[in-house]
Structure to design on (579 residues):
């Protein structure tokens, strides 16, 4: 029986401390979160509110015309519950204007375009509101590359990036994210009827156990098979982690000088802070 | 003799010597006000921990102005600073320096530089090559920095060299969440070894950890003092800034060692003989490691002495 530890009280304390520290050391005291109505952004927003105070967190809801209306209802529920500052920016006009010129776009392209449009709005309001963009990508998505590069994967700081979806659920429940949001089926809501698990082909709870044993516990393939994972499943997930590595790195820079950024020019991001 | 020990559990600014020097001054003033006899600062707390390529920029040479400032400050009360030391031949050390009465009385260069997982210290620092206990106005003390203590040989040497208390400046990151365990797994491990070492070697463990975050890595704080009976006599807050003050009675070392004279019975010759044997005929998995230059150097120096 594989149990991914959560320890919600401790996690909550660490993550609020993280947000408070990392925001304050930039000289700011506010944050911006894109609220989708899903559990990840609800949790990020609640942690940010705990860390900085609800009035210092701006939640932006950015629906598209095909978005599930339930998503906006759930996002509003979170805004109400914590008393966040909030703003609705309908992205339909700009998305439709763009795809009028490129009508051949499939669901993947239009989904990515929407995710990146939302990113530009968050960053504009980051400047307007003087707040850092708080990330909402969890460890499961990041490892599987299940996110849009420079879209929902973009943020200034990310409190959830080292938490598997299973842990996000547990912490969200403990911290008081409305249960209807915790219980619902995860969806990127990029097209009608989309569900994450349907698209991925496995459930988060299944893959989290595998990822936890493979990544965190460094189990070898024979050890994973002994634990009951099928070879096909292991290979598939391992390949997905490998092929999405580019999404977790900065762009590759051609080295010509003695000191190349991030190769032999190495500084922490909190340099001087 | 009772000593009032203070630990400044601070959150330094990464790579900002001036800001951290101000933090040092504030904490030294506070310790003086609280009538402390000795103040411990955490590892690399004058510079920040994840320095990476800023190491040469914040390193203090023998003549650095900051060293003079620190010496002057130690006229108020003795303290241990955590800083980057630059040697005359331009090697950079992760060092803990004991300042007393306007002088540097002891420098410990971190011997074991973690370079695995989240750590990369050997990339930026040179490793110290000695473990020496020193005499202070309070008696014999040892300075060991963080990872040093994860190698039991360091505390073993310190204890046999006469340390009554081990001062350990640390920059220990929080990692590993465990269900139904109040703190992270690194905190659990440190608290276990502090207690075990204090009781096993019948000495005081004075552990000063930092707090705050650097690039998402949190330091868990939780500085503490454990007496020779393994009892925790003072504990700082976890995860946030704190200033710990506690009185320790060095006589309790005598009392503990009278009750269980383990150090008296320690057979140094036996240990040395066995270590010599292991070095000459090491277990198979150590052969490759010991073929390295350290053994050669050791043999050469032995010859010179003869």
């Amino acid at each position: 029986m594989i149990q991914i530890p959560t320890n919600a009280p401790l996690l909550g304390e660490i993550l609020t401390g993280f947000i408070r520290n990392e925001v304050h050391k930039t000289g700011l005291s506010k944050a911006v979160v894109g609220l989708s109505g899903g559990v990840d952004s609800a949790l990020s927003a609640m942690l940010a509110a705990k860390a900085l105070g609800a009035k210092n967190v701006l939640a932006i809801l950015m629906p598209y015309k095909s978005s599930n209306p339930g998503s906006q209802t759930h996002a509003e529920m979170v805004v109400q519950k914590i008393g966040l500052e909030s703003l609705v920016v309908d992205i339909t006009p700009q998305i439709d204007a763009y795809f009028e010129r490129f009508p051949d776009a499939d669901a993947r392209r239009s989904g990515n375009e929407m995710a990146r449009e939302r990113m530009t709005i968050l960053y504009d309001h980051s400047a307007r509101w003087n707040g850092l963009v708080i990330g909402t990508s969890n460890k499961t998505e990041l490892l599987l590359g299940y996110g849009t590069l420079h879209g929902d994967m973009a943020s200034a700081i990310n409190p959830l990036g080292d938490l598997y979806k299973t842990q996000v659920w547990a912490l969200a429940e403990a911290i008081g994210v409305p249960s209807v949001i915790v219980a619902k089926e995860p969806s990127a809501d990029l097209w009608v009827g989309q569900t994450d698990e349907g698209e991925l082909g496995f459930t988060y709870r299944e893959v989290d156990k595998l990822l936890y044993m493979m990544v965190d516990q460094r189990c070898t393939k024979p050890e994973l098979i002994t634990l009951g994972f099928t070879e096909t499943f292991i290979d598939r997930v391992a390949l997905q982690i490998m092929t999405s590595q580019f999404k977790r790195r900065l762009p590759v820079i051609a080295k010509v000088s003695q000191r190349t950024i991030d190769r032999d020019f190495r500084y922490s991001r909190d340099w001087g802070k | 003799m009772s000593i009032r020990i203070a630990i400044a559990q601070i959150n330094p600014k990464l790579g900002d010597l001036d800001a951290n020097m101000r933090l040092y001054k504030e904490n030294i003033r506070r310790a003086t006000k609280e009538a402390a006899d000795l103040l411990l600062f955490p590892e690399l707390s004058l510079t920040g921990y994840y320095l990476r390529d800023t190491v040469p920029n914040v390193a203090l040479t023998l003549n650095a102005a900051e060293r003079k400032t620190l010496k002057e400050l130690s006229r108020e009360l003795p303290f241990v600073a955590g800083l980057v030391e630059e040697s005359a031949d331009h090697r950079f050390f992760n060092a803990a320096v004991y300042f007393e009465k306007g002088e540097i009385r002891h420098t410990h260069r971190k011997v074991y530089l973690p370079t695995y997982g989240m750590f990369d210290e050997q990339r930026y620092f040179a490793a110290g090559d000695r473990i020496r206990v020193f005499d202070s106005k309070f008696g014999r003390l040892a300075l060991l920095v963080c990872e040093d203590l994860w190698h039991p040989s360091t505390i073993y040497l310190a204890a046999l060299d006469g340390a009554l208390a081990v001062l350990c400046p640390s920059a220990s990151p929080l990692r590993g969440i465990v269900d139904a365990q109040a703190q992270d797994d690194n905190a659990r491990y440190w608290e276990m070894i502090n207690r075990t070492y204090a009781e096993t070697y019948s000495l005081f463990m004075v552990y000063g950890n930092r707090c705050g975050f650097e690039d998402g890595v949190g330091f868990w704080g939780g500085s503490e003092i454990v007496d020779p009976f393994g009892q925790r006599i003072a504990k700082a807050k976890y995860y946030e800034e704190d200033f710990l003050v506690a009185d320790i009675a060095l006589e309790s070392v005598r009392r503990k060692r009278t009750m269980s004279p383990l150090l008296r019975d320690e057979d140094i010759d036996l240990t040395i003989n066995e270590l010599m044997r292991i070095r000459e005929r090491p277990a198979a998995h150590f052969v490759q490691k010991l073929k390295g230059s350290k053994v050669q150097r050791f043999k050469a120096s032995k010859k010179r002495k003869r």
Summary: The mean pLDDT of chain A is 96. The first helix of chain A runs from residue 8 to 24.
